[in-house]
Amino acid sequence: MEQRSVYDAAKEIRIKNLQKLLNNDKATDENKYFIYNEIIVEYEKYSFDKALTSIEKNIEIANKLNDSVLKNKVQLKLAKLLVSSGRYKEAIDVLNEIERQNLPEILHSLYFYCLKEVYSGLNFYASVRSNKEEYSRLYNVYQDTLLQQLKKNSDESLALKEKKLRDKREIKKALEINNKRLNYLEPESPLYSLVAFERALLFELDNNIPKQKEFLIRSAISDIKLSIKDNASLTELAMIFFKEGDIERAHNYIVFSVEDAELYNSRLRFVNISNKLSVISKAYEERNLEQQKELKKLLIFISILVLFLLLTIIYIYRQIKKLSAARKQLKDANAQLHNLNEQLSLTNSDLNRLYNELSDTDRIKEQYIGTFLNLYSDYINKLDTYRKMVRKYIVSNKTKALLELTKSKQLIDNELNLFYENFDKSFLHIYPNFVNEVNNLLKDDEQIILKEEQSLNTELRIFALIRLGITNSTKISKILRYSVNTIYNYRVKVKNSAKYRDTFEDDVKKIS
């Protein structure tokens, strides 16, 4: 029910698409006739007025084409529409215009169906006994004639047999035929809605209310999804829920049915709904009056509670004011304590940082002091050995060999390599991940790759000294025995390879 507008919108779109075809310049009168037939099918159970207008348009086209078959077809559709909306006199007038002897055999079943439905309706609503008997007789005549026209197992034939059994109150046999009809139908089809409704009628006669409700609900759902406004299922459901005491649901259903009937403009449906609407609406209003009385009682009770609550709030407010003053004092004390805690926390952080820096510095100093002492001791021993060698050469009068020895740089190169080796070993002992950390600061395609026998290379030694706090290129050049320009060029080259050039050396200093 909540989605009714969605289903109606879908139907309106289908109708608009068909109407667009009518406006096509290439559409012939024959094309328009068949397009109007499709529009009539859409409007047939959706809007009586628009269905009638479309049928009248088709009558004009059939007359224009001077085609008696097409004219008879559309007149029978008109008669069927008038019958379904309770306009029996007009339907009889239309049927009387049709020349039965010239009617094609394929239209006989629809012709007799309309006559049967006309006299069925007149019989139901007739008040004069003689008229009622005549209408009943004609109904039976046309029903029997229709049965002869229909195929044995067609739905129309089965529907007539089911109705006969229903009228005789042979419910079990009628349900068996209804089962056959339902088995061939897809849910959410117009015929399914009708057959499900007729099944609910059988369960009503059998006094099986749960099953009656089930199939009325199935029929109503199908009607709503197909935008069938000329329906009866929801009205019957409303009466069942009304009898069960569910006034709210009954009222919702009957109002929904009235809205559908207004849109379709069916006099017959308005007559059927109006009596039920008045009964349900009256009960709904009475229930609302009872609810209003209950609400008044509740309002008085709530007013008393509100007064009591107001007095309680005043008392609580006074207590809160007292607590607020005490809370304020406590808050001020807490704020002071919080400030002291923050200051203490900052002091502790500074102390921890200083302690870590001092520990790091002490570790570096211990390492390098030990290394320095070992190197210093080694160089004293080497100087003594060199002194003894020089004395030996002089005593042996081998000054020329001694002079040649002093010309060679091999001794210096050996000592320098030993210096680098000791420096690399000592530094990497303190910063074992230095090489990886430096590479992490460089671009992926500019990584420093050491040879297998190398611990550090010249670039890494320069930045190792920077990590130790020696940033001056002159001092670095003296330690590593390179020119200042060479040191500068190495520094620039590596910085240019860094991901973040401007902060590279600061980042190196932070390596731990």
Automatic annotation (TrEMBL):
List all membrane-crossing ranges.
Answer: 298-317
Q: Which Pfam families match?
A: DUF6377 (PF19904)
Query: Which ranges carry the DUF6377 domain?
Result: 223-477
Which keywords label this protein?
Coiled coil, Membrane, Transmembrane, Transmembrane helix
What domain of life? Bacteria
Q: Output the SUPFAM superfamilies linked to this UniProt entry.
A: TPR-like (SSF48452)
Tell me yes or no: is Nucleotide-binding among this UniProt entry's keywords: no
Residue spans making up a coiled coil are 320-361
UniProt protein name: Transcriptional regulator
Q: What is the lineage of its organism?
A: Bacteria, Pseudomonadati, Bacteroidota, Flavobacteriia, Flavobacteriales
